[in-house]
Structures are given as structure tokens and as C-alpha cells.
Amino acid sequence: MSLKNAYFFFLIILCLTQSVHSQTTPSKINIADKYFAQKEYSKAKEVYYNLIMNKYNFKKNALLKLAFIHEREKDYTKTLYFLNLYYERNPTELVMTKMNSIANENNIDGYELTDFFLILLLIKQYSYILLLILAILGLYVMSVLMVKRVKKEPISIKQKVVFLLYLIGVFFIINISRLYKQGIIHNENTSLREDPSSASPVNELLESGHRINIIGSEDIWYRIFRNNKFYYINKANVWLVN
What we know:
The protein has 242 residues and is an alpha+beta fold. It contains nine helices and seven strands; from the N terminus they run αααααααααβββββββ. It has helices at residues 3-18, 27-37, 41-53, 61-72, 76-89, 93-105, 115-125, 127-150, 157-179; strands at residues 181-185, 190-193, 202-206, 211-218, 221-226, 229-234, 238-241. The two termini are 32 Å apart.
């Protein structure tokens, strides 16, 4: 078994072991999984896609299997897309490393293992713990401020700053998925424009598979941040990862 295939099978086995005690999977999922186990990948893919089109709530391991199938077909854009979908539901460093490996081998950018993405990984993995810590900190700060108010004692600038940082932290963690999104370009030679208009100058042509950082939208355009500048890209060229 090749290293690439071993990577995927490890992820799939890991996902299956995590769901041993879950509810019985729907029959259509069982059919697709049976095709996959028998290496009838085209049939399995057809059933998985049918479930996705009908917005069926299937298990996360189906996304890994679709990524595996598309990598066998050398369709790396869809491979990365399904890995990204899985990552949004189960953020792990293993999946991040796999995406980075595929991107490097195929000259696709947007998957660099920067400090920023590692921080996002930690926030996604431990969001509930962080919210609990912030809740405890918030209760403590609020109790201190209330006691001071009852005793008519002045509130120091330092305490006000701590409370402000607390509010910023809560806002960031709760809204990170809304404020910061990612997308996968699925059309070749996609234009990156300086303004949200088809008449705007083209700054760069991006190939399919590139992952972009979306920080807003305007009409039919996504506003993205790339190379330390803001640009616009037509929504029709992007698969949103959510």
C-alpha cells in the first residue's frame, strides 16, 4: 500500500473507531460503504454524491472516502475540497498535514502550515474549553466589578482593560466561523480582480484547487485577502467550505 493510500485509510479507520457507539447508519450510507469496501469506487461515489445533493446528514467518514476516491482519480481539486469539509467538522493536524502534502505536490497554494492556521486549529479543536474558561473569567471579572460598584469603589483602568479583552475573546471565538471563511477555486484561470466588477483589472489568474481566505462579500463577489492585499473573485468560481 502506498504512503498516500495509507494516510487515507488511517484517517478512515480513525473516524470509524470514533463512531462505534453511535446510532445505526442509514441504509443508503451502508450501501455506499459496502461499495467502497468492495473497491467499487464509482458506485460508492455516486451514492455519496446523491446523499450530498439531497443534504442528507451522513457521517464524516464519507467525506474522507470521497477525498480518497478523487485522489485515485487524480482530481486534486475535489480531493482538497472534501478534505476541507471534513476538516471543518473534525479539525486535526493530521488532516491539515495531508492537505498541505497534496497541495505541495501539485503546486497549489493556500495550504501553508503557518502559525495563523495552527492557532485556528487550536481554537477549533478546543473551542468549548476556551469558552468555558472565558465564562469562568467573565463571572470572576463581573463579580469583582459588582462588588466594587456596591462598595462605591473606583474601577481601575487595568480592570476595565481586562474586561474589554474578555469581551473581545468571547466575540472572536463565537464568531470566528462567520467572520473568517475559506473557499476552494474550482475553475481554471479564475480572475482575481482589484474591485468587485468584471471591468476591473485582473491582478492574477488562479488555477483550480487554490484555497482562498474569504472575509466578506459584495453582490456576486467574494472579498478575499491574499498576499497582504484585498481582492475580489466571482462567487461562481468558488466552492465555499462550511
